[in-house]
Amino acid sequence: MINKFQTFYRHIIDEERKIPEATGQLSDLLADIALACKIISLEVNRAGLIDILGFTGDENVQGEAVKKLDVYANDILTNTMKSGGHICAVCSEEEEEFIPLEDKYILNNSISNKYICHFDPLDGSSNIEANISIGTIFSIYKRVSQGGPGTLGDCLQKGIEQVAAGYVVYGSSTFLVYSAGQGVHGFTLDPTVGEFLLSHENIQIPKKSKTYSINEGNYCKWSKGMQNFIDYLKEEDKDTNRPYSSRYVGSLVADFHRNLLYGGIFIYPSDKKNKNGKLRLMYEANPLAYIIEQAGGRASTGKERILEIEPQTLHQRVPLFIGSEEDVMLAEKFLAAEE
Ligand code: P6P
């Protein structure tokens, strides 16, 4: 429900005013991302009507067939970043390498392009034709290099260095969730005014839940500890609120968003085929881990805190256990027991 008419931009400005040294560039950058996602939302919601479905015949760095909407979302986001002037490098699931950007203008004798961004432009896009919710994920860092175009070192920072992160889920409504380190806040797009309006302030995930999200089709490939954990969740025991319910959309942003609001644990573990699982550290695990920790939840590989991982490459995969704190800790115990 929309409890007060506060737009996303007004919210980020109010947050900015709490930080004396803020220059307003992060606010402008977040506003640019919100604008890009409004444009993407228009196309996602019209995809069934115009010839933007189907495949381009190309493949992305993941070797996955690229749908036109993936390319469109990637172009909108990268072009918005290029014109905004606050970014020294853009990284995307759809781009093999990072895109370095020149300094657009000097602002009060300080460099303007002082941030870098990682995007998953349209996560879950294989679900587009089925009209299942999909999403955009973003992750923002301050650059570490001193000026000019960004470097790989600017792009490969630990998740704990993020200054802001968020996602937009294109579902029954278009919903934006972000944090800039002062809690997690949710905004519903009101298409009549074209604004994201505050509808969920200071989201906190329940410490314990009754829901687990995982692709059980991979059960036979999991470790024994992983199999034991899921078997445990499915046993009947009233004292420990079991069995849990299984909820799995197959679209990370949709599964994560439901668990954030209602409680739950989402797992994409390593298995015999994928030693590091399927999901990407820089533009899936890290931004969602930043959000979940700000919302009082937990995110790990099953062994190591996601935000402490020292990244080696832009597209590296990590196992992901994320959601209600007690559920994630319990999963970690089952994995530790197998060692
Ligand atoms: P699986 C979608 O392709 C995605 O990247 C995530 O959005 C989703 O959580 C996961 O893969 C689903 O993978 O192997 O269960 O189909």
Per DSSP, the total helix count is: 8
Give the full name of the CATH homologous superfamily of the largest domain. Answer: Fructose-1,6-Bisphosphatase, subunit A, domain 1
- Annotated CATH topology of the largest domain: Fructose-1,6-Bisphosphatase, Chain A, domain 1
CATH class group of the largest domain: Alpha Beta
Strand content: 15-25%
Q: Please state the structural category.
A: alpha+beta
Rounded to an integer in angstroms, the radius of gyration calculated over CA atoms is: 20 Å
Largest sheet: 8 strands, mixed
Q: Helix share of residues?
A: 25-40%
* Tally of DSSP β-strands: 15
Which stretches are poorly predicted, pLDDT < 50 over at least 5 residues? none
Please tell me about this protein's structure:
The chain is of the alpha+beta class and 339 residues long. It folds into two domains: 8-200, Fructose-1,6-Bisphosphatase, subunit A, domain 1 (Fructose-1,6-Bisphosphatase, Chain A, domain 1, 2-Layer Sandwich), CATH 3.30.540; 211-337, D-Maltodextrin-Binding Protein, domain 2 (3-Layer(aba) Sandwich). Helix content is 30%, strand content 22%. It has eight helices and 15 strands. It has helices at residues 8-16, 25-46, 68-84, 152-155, 224-234, 252-262, 281-294, 325-337; strands at residues 55-59, 65-67, 87-92, 99-100, 115-123, 134-142, 164-170, 174-179, 185-190, 195-200, 211-213, 245-246, 265-268, 298-300, 320-323. Strands 4-3-5-6-7-8-9-10 form an eight-stranded mixed beta sheet, with helices on both faces. Helix 1 packs antiparallel against helix 2 (25-46) and helix 5 (224-234) crosses helix 8 (325-337). The longest helix is centred in the N-terminal third of the chain and has 22 residues, at 25-46. The chain starts with 7 loop residues before the first helix and ends with a helix. The chain binds 6-O-phosphono-alpha-D-fructofuranose. Residues 123-124, 126, 215, 250-252, 278 line the site of 6-O-phosphono-alpha-D-fructofuranose.
